[in-house]
Every structure is written in structure tokens, then in C-alpha cells.
Amino acid sequence: MVNGFLLGVIATASVTAGLFFIKFWRSTRDWFFLAFAASFIIEGLNRAAVALLDNPSETTGWTYVVRLLSLLLILSAILKKNYSRK
């Protein structure tokens, strides 16, 4: 029961962080903030999906794949920001 509660808290915090990055993206139109927003929202939805399972366990393969894709999105945003030509 505590695990489900904590997963819900993490999911809420992740989606909230994603919404803040969307706010920054709307004012700057920088792809960097949009990628971070998408990554945090994906991670929040991933945690919420795990919390809604009958037996919440983050040790399944699909949760790691979703996290990997989310982190690759952040990595691509950082690399694009640092190596883009202006």
C-alpha cells in the first residue's frame, strides 16, 4: 500500500515538473524545454501505470524500456543544445 502511494507521489511530481517545462517552452519555443517536458510526463505516466497494477513492481522489462526512452530524449535534447550550429 505504501509503495502505491509513493509511486503516486512520484508520478504527480513528474507530471508537475513536465508542466513547468511546458510553461518555459511556451515562453521560449526552445526544443530543449519541450523534450524535458515530454520526458517528465512520460516518466510520470509510466509510474502511474505501475501504481495501477494489481501487484505494483518496477522490476518488469517494459518499465525499464520506457525509462530508457525517456532518458534518451533528455540526452538528445542536451546534445542538440550543445552541438547545434547557430
How are the secondary structure elements laid out?
Blueprint lengths: L1 H27 L2 H21 L9 H23 L3
The backbone outline, from C-alpha atoms, is elongated
| Helix-residue proportion | over 70%
Largest sheet, in brief, is: none
Ends distance: 51 Å
Q: Tell me, rounded to a whole number, the average pLDDT.
A: 91
**How would you classify the quaternary structure?**
single chain
Instruction: State Rg.
Output: 15 Å
Tally the beta strands. Answer: 0
Helix and strand composition category = mainly alpha
Order of helices and strands: HHH
Q: How big a fraction of the residues is strand?
A: under 5%
Number of helices: 3
Low-confidence stretches: none
Task: Note down, in words, how this protein is organized.
- There is one protein chain.
- The protein is an all-alpha fold and 86 residues long.
- It contains three helices and no strands.
- It has helices at 2-28, 31-51, 61-83.
- Helix 1 packs antiparallel against helix 2 and helix 2 (31-51) runs antiparallel to helix 3 (61-83).
- The N and C termini lie far apart (51 Å).
- The model has no long low-confidence stretch (mean pLDDT 91).
